[in-house]
């Protein structure tokens, strides 16, 4: 394949830079521009080293290009302001912040559902890791309550993550309900300062009706294999265990090490999900289904 869809990355921080490296391997997308607002940005310097044009005009730099897809890797507050600008310019926005402007997308659960929308939201790292498991349980039985606890290395939580803590918990909880299928959801994030840094771990607790242990276990294991297609470091650390009508699952997510340390599975799962969604759009734009 020679023709690719031009895309832009807004935000040359850790997430934006890791995303750039992943997109560079994509058979369907090509990074046209990386734009930010901070001079001497390491991410912008790396983009230039790879022959990708850069801008210090932030969203303005993106709007001046003909890229068809924009990956927003800034903050929830920024995306709330930028979303209408992307829409007016006719650019598809894939939002890696918890701004929740567009519908929620988790590739392993509903990748193809919203490809007609101009703005989609990837929820949060905790959401991308845990909502597939809640959804896997939901397709077997009713989930009355779903609670997720995301534990990640403090070093892998940059300024953007820290600014978005409130949005993280609120958006993830809604995602557990809307995409995961739980009647009620709750999300907790833990930033662990341990040295050496811990690898991301997530715990899913679900209260269910009439649990069929074998069916739930098979569904969860199938979902893990589906997520691993785009996040190879996604592992079932502790398989489902049952206590009456309570189901608990523990996950571990290791990053690919493209730009970020491997312990930064929380960031890697976001960029991996973003590429999966971007390629879904790109295939559609290229007429590949």
Description of the structure:
This protein is an alpha/beta fold and 289 residues long. It folds into 2 domains: 5-122 and 269-285, Rossmann fold; 125-261, Dihydrodipicolinate Reductase, domain 2 (2-Layer Sandwich). Helices cover 38% and strands 25% of the residues. The chain has a 6-stranded parallel sheet, sandwiched between helices. A 5-stranded mixed sheet has the order 8-7-9-11-10. β1 (5-10), α1 and β2 form a beta-alpha-beta unit. It is globular.
Number of DSSP helical runs: 10
The overall pLDDT, averaged over residues, is 95
CATH architecture label of the largest domain: 2-Layer Sandwich
Largest sheet: 6 strands, parallel
Proportion in helices: 25-40%
Element pattern in H and E: EHEHEHEHEHEHEHHEEHEEH
Strand order of the largest sheet: 3-2-1-4-5-6
Total domain units: 2
Would you spell out the secondary-structure blueprint of this structure?
Blueprint: E1 5-10, H1 14-23, E2 29-35, H2 42-49, E3 53-55, H3 59-63, E4 69-72, H4 76-89, E5 92-95, H5 107-110, E6 119-121, H6 125-138, E7 143-153, H7 159-163, H8 165-178, E8 185-192, E9 200-208, H9 213-228, E10 234-243, E11 246-253, H10 265-285
Parallel strand pairs: 1-2, 1-4, 2-3, 4-5, 5-6, 7-8
Antiparallel strand pairs: 7-9, 9-11, 10-11
Helix pairs in contact: 1-2, 1-10, 6-8, 6-9, 6-10
């Amino acid at each position: 394949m020679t023709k690719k869809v031009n895309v832009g990355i807004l935000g040359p921080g850790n997430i934006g830079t890791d995303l750039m490296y992943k997109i560079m391997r994509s058979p369907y997308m090509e990074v046209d521009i990386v734009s930010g607002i901070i001079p001497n940005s390491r991410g912008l310097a790396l983009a230039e080293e790879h022959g990708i044009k850069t801008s210090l005009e932030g969203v303005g730099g993106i709007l001046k290009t003909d890229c068809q897809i924009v990956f927003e890797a800034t903050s929830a507050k920024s995306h709330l302001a930028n979303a209408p600008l992307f829409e007016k310019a006719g650019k598809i926005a894939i939002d890696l912040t918890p701004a929740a402007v567009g519908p929620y997308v988790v590739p392993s659960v509903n990748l193809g559902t919203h490809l007609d929308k101009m703005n989609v939201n990837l929820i949060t790292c905790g959401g991308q890791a845990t909502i597939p498991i809640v959804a896997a349980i939901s397709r077997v039985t009713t989930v009355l309550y779903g609670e997720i606890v995301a534990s990640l290395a403090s070093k892998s939580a940059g300024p953007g993550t820290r600014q978005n803590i409130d949005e993280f918990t609120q958006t993830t909880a809604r995602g557990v309900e809307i995409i995961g299928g739980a009647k009620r959801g709750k999300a907790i994030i833990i930033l662990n300062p341990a040295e050496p840094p811990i690898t991301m771990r997530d715990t899913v607790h679900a209260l269910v009706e009439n649990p069929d242990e074998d069916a739930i276990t098979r569904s969860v294991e199938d979902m893990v294999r589906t997520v691993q297609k785009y996040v190879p470091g996604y592992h079932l650390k502790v398989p489902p265990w049952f206590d009456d009508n309570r189901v608990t699952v523990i996950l571990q997510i290791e990053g690919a090490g493209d730009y970020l340390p491997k312990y930064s599975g929380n960031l890697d799962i976001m960029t991996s999900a973003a590429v999966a969604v971007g390629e879904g759009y790109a295939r559609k734009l290229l007429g590949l289904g």
